[in-house]
Sequence to fold (385 residues):
Amino acid sequence: MYTNCMRIAFFTDSYLPNVDGVVTSLLGYKKELEEMGHEVFVFCPGNKKQKEENKDDKVYYFTSASFKPYPDYRVAVFPFFSAVKKVKEYNADIIHSHGIATTGLAAIQCANKLKIPAIASFHTLAPEGVHYLSKNQKIQDFFKSVAWKYLKWYYSNFKTVIIPSHYMKKILDEQGISNTLINPTGIDFSRFNKPTDPKSIRKKYNIKNNPIILHVGRIALEKRLEILINSADNVLNIYPDAKFIIVGKGPAEEHYKQLIQSKGLSKNFIFTGYVAENELPDYYSAADVFVFPSDFDTQGLVILESMSVGTPVVVKSNSAPSEFVKEGFNGYIFSDHFDLPGKIINAIKNKDKLRDNAISESKKYTIRKSSERLAEIYSSMISSP
Fold:
């Protein structure tokens, strides 16, 4: 087993200033691995300003172009030669690809050219995001088929593909991607295991003792927020003054605001926009229940974050997040928008009973445990002939 300090090259299509599950995962792994004595170098797309102002010699920004269907994301423009040069300069021991676009292809190029072991992570169900490319169903089906063929080829270039859930293993097995290893991403409890100020959130939005139903994440169509919106009326029949707080930003924000307005629910929904990381624990603890209707996510770190402060969660059945929820123990699992209101109401009524279970269940998934497992995988690959 390789026990020395490892020099690890992360390749990713998404990095700061973006804030999403992938970036949160990367930052957590980077911090823990560095505290364990390893070095982590990040290769990612960046704009001209980021390249010029970057003072971190362990972060390398590729020249990139904005991804028009989703402008917050960028695509590295022909990063291959510069990637090989920098990885050689950093003298990396192992490459870990967290992306699938050109940055991910650069990771393969570096591994092959420099004879460095490489692994990949499957973070995003990209084939389910084809609505960004076309609104036509037939064209979407075509793109989805092409996407899976590409991913099957892409991940065949790696000995091991890290996935965060059994749900994803089943999906990838069905698509012929079988070189997988499950290692759920954990959360940093130092961010959440401290006193919070839920009253500040209630005061900010003038919410007295009304129940708060919370969602945190990118506001995108694949997050299926319409399921929550379509369930609101039935929740409001029981709790007329309940507030639905939607934290985050994204390309579907106006779409969902219009849907809410068309249903006459604008006074019950609050869109906060971007919320700073240090404020999130206050939002989680202010909520009576956290609802996550997405079946797009490969894990859903936000549900662990919510549970870590004792707020129960309600998640979709047949989804990766449902693996982390035990019905009636730390939250509830719903099947459709007819089923969802009752689960939300149960979570609100039973919040105090579910609180300690939510905290204890979330403690099984720490970023330190995930990082230690990752370091073991790196070490065994470096040691292999």
